[in-house]
Each structure stands twice: as structure tokens, then as C-alpha cells.
Amino acid sequence: MSSLPRGMRALLRGRPRRLLPQETAAPVRYLPVTVQGAVVGYLWASLDGLAAGYVNREPAGVAGEVAAGLWKMRLCDAHREGVPSLEALRRCALAPQDRLSGIIGGDAPERKLPGLRALRGLARQ
């Protein structure tokens, strides 16, 4: 179990986790998550620093849904450490590529939208 990420170990041991708000009325910054060069979803953080999450890109299908797990876990781990959501988003951009969850890449530009509704609209395209 020691080779598992810290957040996954906590889940397996049944420890309660501090929940990260995944809804916001605030504007958001987001980054694309890619698997084998295709955008499968978007990692986002609210500009107020309080909420963050992952929105799968509907045309990506199952690949977008599968990618969500590791990204959400990384955000939750940062939240548990007291890291504001925008900083957590930037940390995730530096994460190494994962075979199933893909990569963001440190050179991906952060983009801004007025809210989650706009990001969910983008994810339907």
C-alpha cells in the first residue's frame, strides 16, 4: 500500500477526508487535461480560492471520466493541506503524466471563464 498516492492510502484506511467544494458562483481558471494528445477534461479552480474540481469533456467519453479520479484526488490532497484552490491548480499543472489520467503540462496557459456554467458548456463541445 505504500506505493499508492497518499490520498488513496487514506481512502483505503477509511480515514475521513476534508471535502473540497466542487461548486462555485465565482469566476474560474481552468487547464486542459490531455490523454495521448486529446483533451479529455478540464481542471478548474475558483478565483476566490475556495473551490476546485474536474469537468470531463463529453466527447471524450469514458477516457474523460477515467481521467477524473487522479486529478480530483490531487486537488483533495492539496485542499487537505490547506492549499488555496488556485495554487492547487498550478501544482497539478506540474504533475507527471499518468497513463490513464493524462497530463496538463507546466506550459499550459491558464484560461479564465465567468463561471462553471461556461466551463461545462465548453466541455460539451
Please write out the topology:
Elements: H1 6-13, E1 28-35, E2 38-46, E3 52-56, H2 62-80, H3 85-93, E4 111-113, H4 116-124
Antiparallel strand pairs: 1-2, 1-4, 2-3
Helix pairs in contact: 2-3
Structural commentary:
The protein has 125 residues and is of the alpha+beta class. Helices cover 36% and strands 20% of the residues. The protein has four helices and four strands. It has helices at 6-13, 62-80, 85-93, 116-124; strands spanning 28-35, 38-46, 52-56, 111-113. It has a four-stranded antiparallel sheet, sandwiched between helices. Strand 2 and strand 3 (52-56) form a beta hairpin. It starts with 5 loop residues before the first helix and ends with a helix. The mean pLDDT is 88.
Computed structural class: alpha+beta
Instruction: Tell the overall outline.
Output: globular
Strand content: 15-25%
- The span between the termini is 39 Å
Model regions low in confidence, pLDDT < 50 over at least 5 residues? none
Q: Round the Cα radius of gyration to an integer and report it.
A: 14 Å
Helix content: 25-40%
Strand order of the largest sheet: 3-2-1-4
Count of distinct strands: 4
Summarize the biggest pleated sheet: 4 strands, antiparallel
